[in-house]
Specification:
It contains four helices and eight strands. With about 160 residues, it is of the alpha+beta class.
C-alpha cells in the first residue's frame, strides 16, 4: 500500500507525524489490519477500460467449484480467517482450461526489492475478492434461473 510519495502510507504518516490519515479524507489505523471508515474503491470509469467482453461461463463453473477454507496466517495466528488459497485457485483454473486468471494476482516469485536492489522480496499471490464476489453472484443467479426454469417458472 504505497502513496504517490514512493513510501508506504505508514512511512509517510510517520514522516509527517500524523497518527491517522484523516487529513486525506479517510481514516486508516495501522495495526495488523487496515481499517477504513469510508470505502476503498476500484476505478470503474469506461474511459479507463478496454477490451470489453461478456464473462465466459467457464469462470462461473470455476467459482462454483472453489471451496473457501478456514485458516490462520503464519505471522499472526490470533484471528481465524476464511478465504481461498491462491495456489489452489490456480490449480482449479488449470483444470478448467482457464489460461488468464480473473482471481489470482501476483507471480509467487522472488523479485528484486525496488528499495534495495541487493535484496529480493516475494511477489506473493493474492486473491481479487471483488472479482470473486462478482463471479459468485453471477453463478448464483445462473443457479436460480436454472431452478426456476426446471420448475416451469418464467426467468
Amino acid at each position: 500500500f504505497h502513496t504517490r510519495f514512493n513510501c508506504t502510507v505508514k512511512e509517510y504518516l510517520n514522516q509527517k507525524r500524523i497518527e491517522k490519515a484523516t487529513d486525506f479524507g479517510w481514516d486508516v489505523y495501522f495495526r495488523k489490519n487496515v481499517t477504513t471508515y469510508n470505502a476503498i474503491t476500484n476505478a470503474s470509469d469506461q474511459r479507463l477500460k478496454r477490451d470489453f467482453a461478456p464473462v465466459p461461463e467457464i469462470y462461473l463453473d470455476l467459482v462454483d467449484a472453489l471451496k473457501p477454507e478456514l485458516f490462520r496466517f503464519e505471522n499472526n495466528d490470533t484471528y481465524l480467517n476464511v478465504g481461498l488459497v491462491a495456489q489452489k485457485v490456480l490449480d482449479m483454473e488449470t483444470f478448467f482450461g482457464i489460461t488468464e486468471s480473473l482471481l489470482v494476482r501476483g507471480t509467487g516469485l522472488e523479485i528484486p526489492d525496488p528499495k534495495n536492489p541487493d535484496k529480493v522480496m516475494v511477489d506473493y499471490y493474492s486473491i481479487d475478492y471483488q472479482a470473486y464476489n462478482i463471479l459468485r453472484s453471477m453463478a448464483l443467479e445462473r443457479k436460480v434461473n436454472r431452478l426456476l426454469s426446471k420448475l416451469g417458472l418464467e426467468v
